[in-house]
Amino acid sequence: MNLLHSFLLPPLHMATSFQFLLLLLLFIAPSSLLAQSSFRPKALVVPVTKEASTLQYVTQIHQRTPLVPVNLVLDLGGQFLWVDCDQNYTSSTYRPARCNSAQCSLADASGCGECFSPPRPGCNNNTCGVLPDNTVTRTATSGEVAQDVVSVQSTNGFNPGRNVTVSRFIFSCAPTFLLNGLAKGVSGMAGLGRTKIAFPSQFASAFSFNRKFAICLASSSKGVVFFGDGPYVFLPNVDASQSLTYTPLILNPVSTASASTQGQASSEYFIGVKSIKIDQKVVPNINTTLLSINKEGFGGTKISTVNPYTVLEASIFKGVTEAFVSASAARNITRVGGVAPFEVCFSAKNVGSTRLGAAVPTIELVLQNSVSWFIFGANSMVQVKDDVLCLGVVNGGDNPRTSIVIGGYQLENNLLQFDLASSRLGFSSLLFGRMTTCANFNFTSAPSTALRHHDQGSDFE
Ligand SMILES: *[C@@H]1O[C@H](CO)[C@@H](O)[C@H](O)[C@H]1NC(C)=O
Ligand SMILES: *[C@@H]1O[C@H](CO)[C@@H](O)[C@H](O)[C@H]1NC(C)=O
Ligand SMILES: *[C@@H]1O[C@H](CO)[C@@H](O)[C@H](O)[C@H]1NC(C)=O
Ligand SMILES: *[C@@H]1O[C@H](CO)[C@@H](O)[C@H](O)[C@H]1NC(C)=O
Ligand SMILES: *[C@@H]1O[C@H](CO)[C@@H](O)[C@H](O)[C@H]1NC(C)=O
Ligand SMILES: *[C@@H]1O[C@H](CO)[C@@H](O)[C@H](O)[C@H]1NC(C)=O
């Protein structure tokens, strides 16, 4: 850009018509320049690992100037990126969002903040604020809206490619205490929700690709999140984007987040479970009122990466576990005492093993338009001891906000693609059935693209 400026700068005596042309050029130049000289990725990829003590899924991006690695708890339904700015935030490119700026309106941030201490990241006058939310502990507070450089790896779907940056990625600062309850070494949360400033929309907007992203969580080792469209290829050359089953995503008109953000639509992803079957038999007497979302935003089924296991409302829990226990008995599987947090456990003795995990009854979530999400042994049973397997589902009690929360364990080794423009979810079913896993993305860069680094402006500037 500097070059362009000096080249086009007119001598003072030039005619006004030239100045008009110059003005025109300046408006047209940025986008054509990008198209010519900048590398436009088709998709991006970030790693996700499961942290063993908290069972949280942790991703890593690079942020700030100079770039530093930032570990973040992945929050599928989260509103945006928030990071602790009080501890160790140093960056020459940090910019607070000025009140009433375009950034503030994209962030749905109102008000105008003051901060009564020396200015620093997270504490500036005349900035707008939002409510960053620790969705693990359900704690929210206020934080300054800001912009800084974010860098991630591009991908062709097979390997990581060159690194790309968004120069003014919008996020929220938070005080250090909001990290309480998160995995060690983490400095915030990465929200992938439906808002305009969550990762999927900001990346799609910065790089002009579809508002689609996919998550593929691994049980140990490294899983992935892709931003942009497929292919999503796992060794040995299985493109998980090729055989997805689709179901509509449903908008919950009322936020389920901490009290402070109520009144807005939810940034989370809901799907329409119509009934549940165990070994092909419908679980009787499930109260269908609980399966839909009411005016106050209660009920329904959401997908969550911050709940380690699926949570079922008490009466649904009772129906599902009773049906599962009797279907297991029919397979001569012996029930044993519960092991917290699980109530329903079995002796591993009579349980065979299959490619899809323990040979236990199959759970089937029957969705809108009669498509089904099948949950096989690898996603239903948790090995708690050598000889004990538990159904990895917990009791959510009476009157929970959301009746069914499909948790992380049930998502592992399934690829889920969220298409925001078409408002639909594509799901692969357990990838073991296709002889691969979510840990099989090839994170080794192809040599020709590994070493280059390109900058990319953001549409949010
Ligand atoms: C601060 O950042 C440096 C460099 O990234 C890192 O080595 C150090 O552990 C960080 N300290 C804290 C308290 O996070
Ligand atoms: C904000 O403005 C107030 C006075 O209006 C001043 O006392 C304070 O130091 C300023 N804070 C920052 C972070 O600039
Ligand atoms: C690109 O990003 C990856 C991880 O995000 C990092 O390990 C690598 O050093 C970066 N490469 C360059 C050339 O910046
Ligand atoms: C079904 O659930 C709704 C919402 O909790 C409740 O009002 C209703 O009484 C329940 N119906 C039955 C038959 O339990
Ligand atoms: C269960 O055990 C009984 C008695 O040992 C046996 O007759 C029956 O075939 C077994 N059923 C299955 C499904 O293995
Ligand atoms: C992973 O990708 C790299 C770079 O293309 C390639 O050299 C390597 O053989 C791949 N690994 C496997 C196991 O295919």
In short:
The protein is an alpha+beta fold and 461 residues long.
Topology at a glance:
Layout: H1 2-8, H2 16-37, E1 43-51, E2 56-63, E3 68-75, E4 81-84, E5 95-96, H3 102-106, E6 129-130, E7 133-134, E8 139-140, E9 143-155, E10 160-174, E11 188-191, H4 199-207, E12 212-216, E13 222-228, E14 233-234, E15 238-239, E16 245-250, E17 269-271, E18 273-278, E19 281-282, H5 288-291, E20 301-303, E21 310-312, H6 314-330, E22 335-336, E23 345-347, E24 353-354, E25 357-358, E26 363-367, E27 372-375, H7 377-380, E28 381-385, E29 388-391, E30 393-395, E31 404-406, H8 408-411, E32 414-419, E33 424-430, H9 447-450, E34 453-456
One 2-acetamido-2-deoxy-beta-D-glucopyranose is lined by residues 114-116, 119, 123-125.
Explain this structure to me?
GO terms for molecular function: aspartic-type endopeptidase activity. This is Peptidase A1 domain-containing protein. The chain has a 20-stranded mixed β-sheet that branches. The protein has a four-stranded antiparallel β-sheet with strand order 19-18-26-27. Strands 22-23-29-28 form a four-stranded antiparallel β-sheet. It has two domains: 43-230 and 442-456, Acid Proteases (Cathepsin D, subunit A, domain 1); 238-435, Acid Proteases (Cathepsin D, subunit A, domain 1). The longest helix has 22 residues, at 16-37. A hairpin with a 2-residue loop joins strand 18 (273-278) and strand 19 (281-282). The protein contains nine helices and 34 strands. The chain has 461 residues and is α+β, with helices and mostly antiparallel strands. Residues 1-37 and 449-461 have low confidence and may be disordered. The chain binds 2-acetamido-2-deoxy-beta-D-glucopyranose (6 copies). One 2-acetamido-2-deoxy-beta-D-glucopyranose (NAG) binds at residues 114-116, 119, 123-125.
